[in-house]
Structures are given as structure tokens and as C-alpha cells.
Design goal:
This protein is of the alpha+beta class. It is built from three helices and four strands, in the order αββββαα.
Amino acid sequence: MEHEEIQQIFEKFFEKYRKHESDEDPNWSAYWTEFTEKGKFEVRMIKAPGRLTFSFFNDDRKLAEVEGWDTFFDASKSLEQDDSNGYDEARFFAGMQEAVS
């Protein structure tokens, strides 16, 4: 799956499922969870004024937190190469794409 396609899927998902904690909170977030043979893998996207943050979790343990799309794709590729977490970028975003189709 191409980076541009993944970005479009995540942005579409974010617009559909975003939430925030209160009316005064300028931060919006959305997350997608996939259950793999190695546990629960989750990616959270948080948008704040002038900031875009992604957090990666495996079984509720934070693996990485990065800012911006370029670092997101670097972290995603790195985590995909780690067999201990069960993360597969294409499978993960194919599931997210089904949720917004």
C-alpha cells in the first residue's frame, strides 16, 4: 500500500471517528486497533493546532510516539520489521479502510 493511500485512509477514518475530551480541549484523536496472533496493536492519531502526533501501542505498551507523516511512515516500517508485535502495515490499513468504506 502506498504512503499517500495510507494517509488518505487514516485522514478519512480520523474525520469519521475523531473525538475530544471536552469542548475546551483543542486536541482531537482517533485510534484503530487490530488483534493479531501476537496481541493487540493500536495506532492513535492526535491532532492539535499546528501538531500531528501518532502513538503506536502493542498490548497497551507504548512502542513509539512520533510527529508528522514522514516520521509516522518511518516508525511504521520499523515496527513492521519487528516480528514480536504482529504488526503488518498493509493488513492494518486494509482493516481501517473497510471501516470507512
